[in-house]
C-alpha cells in the first residue's frame, strides 16, 4: 500500500465486487459512519457547485468511510436551495462566506508569514488558492473540536480511489497507516473523457490517465508524446496529488495540495495504489464556467497573472475569444479521447486505466434514491421548522392540529434537475504539472535503455 521507489503496482478497482446487479443493494457500508468506527475522517472543501455535483461527491465519500464534511460555500452552493439541503445532512457543517468570516480570516497568522505570501493579492486562481488555505486553517480547528483523526482537502470534482484497501474503504486504508506517519499523499489520476457531451462525469467517465508516481519511468517518458497529444503537459492541470493529514498540534495547511506543521517537518508516505481521481474539464461547459469566474484579459501576458498552469491559460483564452463551434472543435482536439486505437495502446501500456468502482457506487446511490431523499428530507425539515417557529411566535391558545409534511420524490428530483442549471519556512505547494521531457530526463532514459 505504501510507495517505494521501485514499486509499480497496477491499481485495483474492485470492479467485479461493486458493479450494480439487477437488484442493487446499497449501502455496501453505512453512509452515516457510526461513531464507534475508527479512524474518523473529515473532508473539507471550498465550493460554489450545485447539488447535482456536491451530493454524489459527498455520499460517495460517505460510502468509503468519511464521517464529517466542512463545506465552505459561495455562489450557487450558498443559495438556500442548495445550502438548506447540505445543512440537513448528518455529519455536514456548512460555512458561509460572510463578512464575519472574512473579518475573522483577515486576522489569521498566515498573513504575517511568508510561506503563502507569493500568492497574496493576485486574481483568479491565486485568490482561490489563498482562500482555500485560509479555509483549511479553520477546518483544522473544527476537525479537532469534532475529535476527527484525519483531514483531507478535496475539490468537488475529485474522488478518493482507495485502491489496495480491503472492502474499498478509505477508513481501512488510513487505519493501516503506521502511527508515526503524519501525512499521506494520494497521487492524482486525470479523467480522460471519450465524448464531448458528458453531463455527469462521476457517472459517465471510467477512463483515467495514471500519475507519474504510479508508472515505470521508461513507460512514462517513452509514451510521453502520445499521452500528451500536443497539450502543454502530460496532464491538463495539476499532477502533484492531494494529501491527508493526521490531526495533531501545530498542524497547518501548505496550500490546497499539502499540509505542514509549524514545529516539525511532517513524516509523509505516498500511496502506490490509492489515488485521487480528478475529473478536470470533463464537461464542455467547464470551459466557459472557468472563464466566467475570472475577469482577466484573454491575452498570453495577462492570463499569467490569473492561472498557474499553462493549459488553464490556453483554455481561458479560447473560451474568451472563440465562437461556440470553434470552442467545441478545440475541446474535441485537446480534451476528448476519441482515437480508440490510441486509447487501446495506452491502456495496454498502463498509461491509461479503467476505474469503474466510483461509477458503480454512485449509480447504486442514485438507484437507492439517496440524493433525492436528501433533498426531500431537507424540504420536510424546513417545513417543520417553519411550522414550529410559527407556534413559538404565536401567543394564541387555540389548538393547532399536527400534520405530517410529505415531499414527493418527484419534487425532489425536480429540485436536483433545477440545480443543474442553475517546517515553518516551507513554502506552500502550488498545483504543479507532472514532469516534462527535458534533456536530463532524456539522458536518464537513454542510459536506462542502453543498460
UniProtKB/TrEMBL annotation:
It comes from the Eukaryota. It holds the Pfam family Glyco_transf_92. GO terms for biological process: cell differentiation; cellular response to light stimulus; cellulose biosynthetic process; cellulose microfibril organization; maintenance of root meristem identity; plant-type cell wall modification involved in multidimensional cell growth; plasmodesma organization; regulation of plant-type cell wall cellulose biosynthetic process. One of its GO terms (cellular component) is plant-type cell wall. It is an enzyme of class 2 (transferase). Its main location: membrane. PANTHER family: GLYCOSYLTRANSFERASE-LIKE KOBITO 1. This is Glycosyltransferase family 92 protein.
Amino acid at each position: 500500500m505504501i510507495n517505494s521507489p521501485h514499486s509499480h503496482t497496477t491499481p485495483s478497482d474492485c470492479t467485479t465486487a461493486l458493479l450494480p446487479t439487477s437488484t442493487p443493494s446499497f449501502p455496501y457500508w453505512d453512509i452515516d459512519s457510526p461513531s464507534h468506527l475508527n479512524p474518523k475522517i473529515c473532508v473539507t472543501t471550498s465550493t460554489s457547485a450545485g447539488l447535482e455535483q456536491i451530493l454524489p461527491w459527498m455520499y460517495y465519500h460517505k460510502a468509503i468511510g468519511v464521517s464529517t464534511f466542512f463545506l465552505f460555500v459561495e455562489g450557487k452552493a450558498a443559495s438556500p436551495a442548495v445550502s438548506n439541503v447540505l445543512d440537513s445532512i448528518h455529519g455536514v457543517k456548512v460555512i458561509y462566506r460572510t463578512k464575519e468570516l472574512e473579518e475573522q480570516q483577515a486576522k489569521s497568522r498566515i498573513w504575517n508569514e511568508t510561506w503563502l505570501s507569493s500568492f497574496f493579492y493576485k486574481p483568479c486562481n491565486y485568490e482561490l488558492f489563498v482562500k482555500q488555505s485560509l479555509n483549511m486553517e479553520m477546518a483544522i480547528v473544527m476537525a479537532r473540536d469534532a475529535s476527527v483523526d484525519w483531514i483531507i482537502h478535496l475539490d468537488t470534482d475529485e474522488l478518493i480511489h482507495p485502491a489496495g484497501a480491503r472492502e474499498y474503504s478509505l477508513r481501512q486504508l488510513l487505519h493501516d497507516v503506521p502511527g508515526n506517519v503524519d501525512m499521506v499523499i494520494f497521487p492524482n489520476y486525470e479523467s480522460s473523457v471519450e465524448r464531448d457531451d458528458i453531463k455527469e462525469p462521476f457517472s459517465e467517465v471510467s477512463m483515467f490517465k495514471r500519475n507519474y508516481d504510479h508508472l515505470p519511468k521508461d513507460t512514462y517518458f517513452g509514451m510521453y508524446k502520445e499521452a500528451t497529444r500536443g497539450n502543454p503537459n502530460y496532464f491538463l492541470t495539476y499532477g502533484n496529488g492531494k494529501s491527508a493529514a493526521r490531526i495533531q498540534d501545530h498542524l497547518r495547511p501548505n496550500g490546497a495540495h499539502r499540509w505542514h506543521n509549524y514545529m516539525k517537518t511532517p513524516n509523509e508516505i505516498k500511496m502506490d495504489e490509492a489515488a485521487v481521481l480528478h475529473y478536470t474539464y470533463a464537461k464542455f461547459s467547464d470551459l466557459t464556467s472557468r472563464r466566467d469566474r475570472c475577469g482577466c484579459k484573454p491575452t498570453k501576458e495577462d492570463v499569467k497573472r490569473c492561472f498557474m498552469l499553462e493549459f488553464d491559460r490556453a483554455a481561458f483564452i479560447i473560451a474568451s475569444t472563440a465562437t461556440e463551434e470553434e470552442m467545441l472543435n478545440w475541446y474535441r482536439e485537446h480534451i476528448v479521447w476519441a482515437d480508440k486505437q490510441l486509447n487501446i495502446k495506452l491502456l495496454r501500456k498502463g498509461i491509461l486505466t479503467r476505474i469503474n468502482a466510483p461509477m458503480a457506487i454512485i449509480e447504486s446511490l442514485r438507484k437507492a434514491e439517496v440524493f433525492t431523499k436528501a433533498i426531500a428530507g431537507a424540504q420536510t425539515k424546513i417545513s417543520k421548522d417553519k411550522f414550529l417557529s410559527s407556534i413559538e411566535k404565536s401567543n394564541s391558545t387555540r389548538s393547532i392540529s399536527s400534520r405530517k409534511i410529505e415531499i414527493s420524490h418527484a419534487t425532489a428530483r425536480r429540485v436536483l434537475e433545477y440545480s443543474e442549471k442553475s517546517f515553518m519556512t516551507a513554502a506552500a505547494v502550488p498545483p504543479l504539472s507532472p514532469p516534462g521531457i527535458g534533456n536530463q530526463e532524456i539522458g536518464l532514459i537513454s542510459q536506462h535503455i542502453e543498460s
